[in-house]
């Protein structure tokens, strides 16, 4: 298939610029991937659609305030987006400036701290923070939440909480696993009372998730790499769900990529590393039975993954329905359940 096959027209006013006042107040489009039938629901209906035999797999990554502002010694303004923290003192980052900084140059941040440019690796710069304090501490002090490019506003204090799942644990993402944003503590407690099991994997979502596919021939696309970790607890939980006849329900495409990356050998196994798994129609899923996700950008790798899972025709028809019914799209938008 071609990139252009995954294009669709979305009115700008359907792109959610803010979250709803309550996390669990979103609508949910329910797609049956066998029949292609779609049902308009509310997110809280998810409780009725799950059984005690099912297993929910969440991504417990934590978004870091990865956007920094500063200036070069020449006075030129600089915007930094941390892509990956490699150790407490060093990170790889995107830099936006009138001229690319040279190795050895310093970038002074809003609090007076300086980052040293060590060099360039492809389209990323390696930055170092001299001194005893670590990068995470620096970001907590002066970093900004890196809202997606389709949210046309500056980050606000409320985004510190709302662009983060309530179960976020492992710091390292520069974009939220947005399917998880719908879950609040009350929903999790109700799932517990019903007996629905849950487990966690980690995939640190990178800025590449927003990077457009630049080639129409999908076989020529180079997928960005992201760190993932699937522990033995998650593997055991999946096996237990299979044994009792339950479904493995991935909460978000990032949970899918973590599970499927750990299943590269043919079956799910504990693993850790970088994944560049690119899932397109024709892919055979090994570890996921149902998917809860948000609505994704036209021509994006995430829309291709969802189409691989539920079928291209069914997904594109569901998206047309969502647009007609005025669903809210993207990170702060409504949800979709595929069973």
Description:
The chain is of the alpha/beta class and 339 residues long. The chain has 2 domains: 3-63 and 160-338, QueA-like (3-Layer(aba) Sandwich), CATH 3.40.1780.10; 67-142, QueA-like (Thrombin, subunit H, Beta Barrel). The chain is 21% helix and 28% strand. It has 8 helices and 17 strands. The strands form 3 sheets. It has a 9-stranded mixed beta sheet with strand order 2-1-17-16-14-3-12-13-15. A 6-stranded antiparallel barrel has the order 5-6-7-10-9-8. Strands 4-11 form a two-stranded parallel sheet. The longest helix is centred in the C-terminal third of the chain and has 13 residues, at 312-324. It is globular, with a radius of gyration of 20 Å. One of its GO terms (biological process) is tRNA queuosine(34) biosynthetic process.
Task: Give a quick set of tags describing it.
339 residues; alpha/beta; QueA-like; Thrombin, subunit H; 2 domains; 21% helix; S-adenosylmethionine:tRNA ribosyltransferase-isomerase activity; QueA_dom1
């Amino acid at each position: 298939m071609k990139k252009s096959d995954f294009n669709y027209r979305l009115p700008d006013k359907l792109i959610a610029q803010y979250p709803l006042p309550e996390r669990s107040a979103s609508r949910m489009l329910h797609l049956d991937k066998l029949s292609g039938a779609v049902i308009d629901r509310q997110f809280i209906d998810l409780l009725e659609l799950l059984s005690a035999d099912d297993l929910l797999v969440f991504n417990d990554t934590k978004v870091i305030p990865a956007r920094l502002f500063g200036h070069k010694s020449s006075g030129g303004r600089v915007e930094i987006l941390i892509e990956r923290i490699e150790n407490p003192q060093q990170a790889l980052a995107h830099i936006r400036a009138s001229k690319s900084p040279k190795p050895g140059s310093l970038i002074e941040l809003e609090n007076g701290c300086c980052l040293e440019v060590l060099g360039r690796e492809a389209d990323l710069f390696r930055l170092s923070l001299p001194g005893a304090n670590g990068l995470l501490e620096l970001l907590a002090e002066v970093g900004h939440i890196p809202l997606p490019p389709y949210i046309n506003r500056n980050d606000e204090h409320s985004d510190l909480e709302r662009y983060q799942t309530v179960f976020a644990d492992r710091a390292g993402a520069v974009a939220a696993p947005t399917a998880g944003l719908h879950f609040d503590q009350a929903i999790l407690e109700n799932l517990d009372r019903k007996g629905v099991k849950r487990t966690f994997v980690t995939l640190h979502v990178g800025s590449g998730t927003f990077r457009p596919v630049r080639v129409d021939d999908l076989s020529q696309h180079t997928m960005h790499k992201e760190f993932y970790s699937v522990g033995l607890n998650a593997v055991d939980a999946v096996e237990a769900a299979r044994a009792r006849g339950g479904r493995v329900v991935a909460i978000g495409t990032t949970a899918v990529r973590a599970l499927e990356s750990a299943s590269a050998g043919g079956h799910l196994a504990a693993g850790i590393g970088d994944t560049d798994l690119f899932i397109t129609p024709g892919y055979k899923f090994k570890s996921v039975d149902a998917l809860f996700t948000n609505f994704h950008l036209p021509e994006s790798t995430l829309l291709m993954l969802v189409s691989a899972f539920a079928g291209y025709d069914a997904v594109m028809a569901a998206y047309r329905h969502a647009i007609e019914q005025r669903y809210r799209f993207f990170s702060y938008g409504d949800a979709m359940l595929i069973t």
